[in-house]
Amino acid sequence: MSGAVVSAEPAVARTRVLRRLDALLQGVSRLLMIVCMLALVGAALVLSYSVFARHVLKLATDWQDEAAVFLLVGATFVSAAHVQHLRGHIGIEAVTTLLSARVNRVRRWLVDIVTLAFCGFFAWKSWTLFWEAYVDGQTSSSTWGPPLSIPYGLMAFGMTLLSVQLLLQVAIGACEMGKAPGQGESTLPDRTDRTDRTDRKGGHA
Predict the structure, then answer these.
(1) Which of 11, 40, 131, 169 is the most buried (most CB within 10 A)?
(2) pLDDT digits (tens, 9 = 90+) for 55-90
(3) Quick one: which of 137, 168, 166 has its CA closest to 152?
(4) Are the C-beta atoms of residues 130 and 156 closer than 8 Å to each other?
């Protein structure tokens, strides 16, 4: 019994360290979420001004559309890591309600691994595109001609944050699956667990 407890201590310590890193990443992500919200407001203001300038003031506009797109690209990709932490990305949950909590945990871990592989490749490719656009001085084909390194850089930065978030979740999931049931598990259930509890509560009513 004592040997099992001793062998479990390193796993508990690793999980604790990983959760601290996850909390640190979330602190950064929350600050970036404020920037993303301001970017969305900025995109709305830019598009509103574009409509007003074109149809009321009869002015030619050549920068508003691309500026709004750049702001939306940044807000979308940079906020992805925080949304992943909340398990807020769109997912199909038709099968999850039929599985046990332990099987769901394994399923979620495997999905995180596949997602990490895709996002890691996406981040690497985005950094490649960013570097090529920066070195070659690539610009868009519009009359405004902003540098393409801006959207590529935002994509690369956002996907890198998302990949780090997924890497932490995969590592935490691997540590937790090696523990005994109920030992050191997260006290914050994910969206699937909350849905299951709501369904069971409604069934007892």
Answers:
(1) 169
(2) 888 887 888 999 999 999 999 999 999 999 888 777
(3) 137
(4) yes
CA distances from 130 to 109, 118, 134 (A): 31, 18, 6
Q: Can you give the pLDDT at residue 151? A: 95
131 token code pair: 């570097």
Closest C-alpha to 161, from 69, 82, 87: 82
Distance of CA 119 to the CA centre of its chain: 10
Quote the tokens at residue 91.
């997912």
Q: Which among 196, 161, 198 is positioned nearest to 81, based on CA atoms?
A: 161
Sorted by where each begins, the domain ranges of the chain are: 2-195
pLDDT digits (tens, 9 = 90+) for 152-199: 999 999 999 999 999 999 998 888 776 655 554 444 445 544 444 444
Residue owning tokens 């909340």: 86
Burial 22-37 (b: 16+ CB within 10 A, else e): beebbeebeebbeebe
For the chain, give me the number of helices (H) and strands (E)?
Answer: 6, 0
**Matching residue, tokens 């399923």:** 107
Q: Are 162 and 80 in contact (CB under 8 A)?
A: yes
CA 16 to chain centre: 22
Nearest to residue 46, comparing CAs of 27, 63, 33?
63
Sign of CA dihedral 10, 190, 92, 152: negative
* pTM of the predicted structure, to 2 decimals: 0.77
